[in-house]
TrEMBL record:
It comes from Gluconacetobacter dulcium. The gene is thiE. 2-[(2R,5Z)-2-carboxy-4-methylthiazol-5(2H)-ylidene]ethyl phosphate binds at S134, V135, S136, G164, I184, S185. This is Thiamine-phosphate synthase. Transmembrane segments: none annotated. Residues 6-187 form the Thiamine phosphate synthase/TenI domain.
């Protein structure tokens, strides 16, 4: 069995009150390392309300609650960390905001250079992707399985694989050394519900 864990990213739009029971069912269905709240182009008050409702669901189950894009709001709202991408905030600036206590993840797409610089800036993990076409986020970037192999062989910093990952296609990423698989549709759009999605992903990881 590979030492790989599930990392859930929330759907691009959600009503936090209606979503909270789905999140609870997903987290109760099997091991999950982290939940990332990803809400784009919404007011700060909307993000903070979602954090207030969803963060306890994760943290009460000892699951890290990570906020996408906004280290400043993560610090204010009791999150366990923040995740930044190339269009959000410089990794070093994010590290300064978060201090030593909160986690920092950095999107590095298909770039070894970005990943190494993120590590030097104090990232707690780097993320590569997209590995497959994704219904959640359109991108022309395609990261290679060889990139994961190189990173996991050469570097100690944990690595997240993201982008179109499902129970059917994740095995090569697990075998290549991904520490975490970040998924959206594979869980939240699973035809039998999010709990079934988590069980399917964990079964695929264990079978890889």
């Amino acid at each position: 069995m590979y030492d790989c864990q599930l990392y859930l990213v929330t759907p691009p739009t959600l009503d936090p009150v209606a979503f909270a029971p789905d999140l609870a069912r997903a987290l109760d269905a099997g091991p999950v390392a982290a939940v990332q709240l990803r809400l784009k182009d919404v007011p700060d008050d909307t993000i903070l309300r979602a954090i207030d409702i969803l963060r306890p669901v994760a943290q009460e189950r000892d699951v890290a609650f990570i906020l996408n894009d906004r280290p400043d709001l993560a610090c204010r709202s009791g999150c366990d960390g923040a995740h930044v991408g190339g269009e959000d905030m410089d990794a070093a600036a994010a590290r300064t905001l978060l201090g030593d206590r909160l986690q920092l993840g950095v999107s590095c797409y298909d770039s070894r250079d970005l990943a190494m610089r993120a590590g030097e800036a104090g990232a707690d993990y780097v993320a590569f992707g997209a590995f497959f076409p994704s219904v959640s986020k359109e991108t022309d970037i395609r990261a290679s399985v060889e990139l994961l192999t190189w990173w996991s062989t050469m570097m100690e910093l944990p690595v997240v694989a993201i982008g179109g990952i499902t129970a059917d296609n994740c095995a090569p990423l697990v075998r290549a050394g991904a520490d975490f698989l970040a998924v959206i549709s594979a869980v939240w759009s699973h035809p039998e519900g999010p709990a079934a999605g988590v069980r399917a992903m964990n079964a695929a990881i264990n079978a890889a």
